[in-house]
Design brief:
two-stranded antiparallel ribbon, Rossmann fold, 12 strands, binds zinc ion, six-stranded mixed beta sheet, binds adenosine monophosphate
Length: 327
């Protein structure tokens, strides 16, 4: 789950005190003020701004080339639904994939599935569904109970399955809904603890490597607040239930620190992240960042060990040797 839902509120709603705040473009009443962009927008011009920024990020970071088929991993939350909505409005051929994690508390997984299915049905877009219970006879909690940190186990499982399902459906690219708040917070947290092995992975576009498809984050330059505003303008219904395993408190603290700095100096968060992307080469070639990969002896996906972490926790490791098909 996102670590920072408390900040999901637009800056203001057009009126502050007696001053009517006007859209920078058309002078109609503005619904959002974006100090980082030195702009205020009415719904129509905010929508234009949002689409333009996503299109610019896709182009700048070479996320999608003409004809590439993209599979968007959709949780039912605001970010991934927005990613699908924007990519299809920009004319890309989009297929969704939703992983039913089998988390029963708060009806989290059932509600996420319902919201995602409804969203895709309304737009008549293709959606691939994958249920952990149906395929592995256990849910995320049962499989991850011996793993130290549940959220990293869940993240590893989701990344493996997104890639495998995209390969199976002959897609070229996997997209996720990560936004600027997520990426800059993870960046700060990884720098503060010098997790060098993650520091070359937080970019908006990770090139393909062996059986790992290209991974993109089309909302990398859009903030949480901008995405919340977009979903309210476009009337996108997102899942209301929250995951019972919320991200560590440490992650939330880093988000609050960045939020505080952003309020004092608008634009710092974006400059921090964009600067990182420009300088990411600093971390490549670093012995901790460069992992030598071999093939998992069960699923043949790239791994640093004999048996990849996914197979270790999800499969009977005495069976399927060299099956060659990850799912
Ligand atoms: P999270 O790790 O929950 O912050 O989610 C990060 C991204 O992973 C989301 O924006 C989605 O693109 C994707 N994702 C998360 N949960 C699921 C899921 N159950 N099914 C498909 N994609 C997911
Ligand atoms: Zn306007
Ligand atoms: Zn494996």
């Amino acid at each position: 789950m996102k670590p920072h839902q408390h900040s999901n509120r637009p800056s203001f709603s057009g009126q502050r005190g007696d001053t009517l705040v006007k859209c920078t473009v058309c002078k109609e009443a503005a619904i959002i003020k974006l100090p980082a962009h030195n702009s205020k927008f009415c719904p129509r011009h905010f929508d234009n701004f949002f689409l333009r920024l996503v299109a610019k990020a896709i182009k700048r970071y070479h996320m999608l080339e003409a004809g590439e088929k993209v599979m968007v991993a959709v949780s039912g939350g605001k970010d991934s639904l927005t990613a699908v909505d924007v990519l299809s409005r920009l004319g890309y051929s989009v297929t969704g994939v939703h992983l039913d994690l089998g988390i029963d508390e708060n009806k989290f997984s059932d509600n996420s599935l319902d919201v995602t299915q409804k969203f895709f049905a309304e737009r008549n877009l293709p959606l691939v569904l994958f249920s952990l219970r149906d395929n592995f006879e256990k849910n995320m909690e049962e499989a991850g109970k011996h793993f130290d940190r549940f959220c990293s186990f869940c993240g590893m499982t989701k990344r493996y399955l997104m890639n495998s399902l995209a390969l199976k459906h002959r897609m070229d690219v996997v997209a996720t809904g990560h936004n600027l708040d997520d990426l800059s917070t993870a960046l700060l947290a990884n720098i503060m603890r010098w997790k060098v092995r993650f520091l070359n992975k937080g970019v908006p576009c990770l090139p393909p490597q062996g059986n790992f498809l290209k991974k993109i984050k089309p909302l990398a330059l859009l903030s949480e607040e901008e995405i919340v505003t977009y979903t309210s303008i476009q009337k996108i219904q997102r899942v209301q239930s929250t995951c019972p395993h919320s991200r560590e408190a440490k992650f939330k603290r880093y988000h609050e620190v960045l939020q505080g700095i952003e309020e004092q100096s608008p634009g710092t968060r974006r400059a921090f992240y964009e600067g990182y992307v420009r300088n990411v080469h600093v971390f490549s070639g670093h012995p901790e960042a460069e992992t030598r990969l071999r093939s998992c002896i069960i699923c043949e996906m790239p791994t640093t060990q004999n048996i990849c972490t996914f197979c270790k926790y999800w499969r009977d490791t005495t069976a399927h040797l060299g099956a060659g098909n990850p799912i």
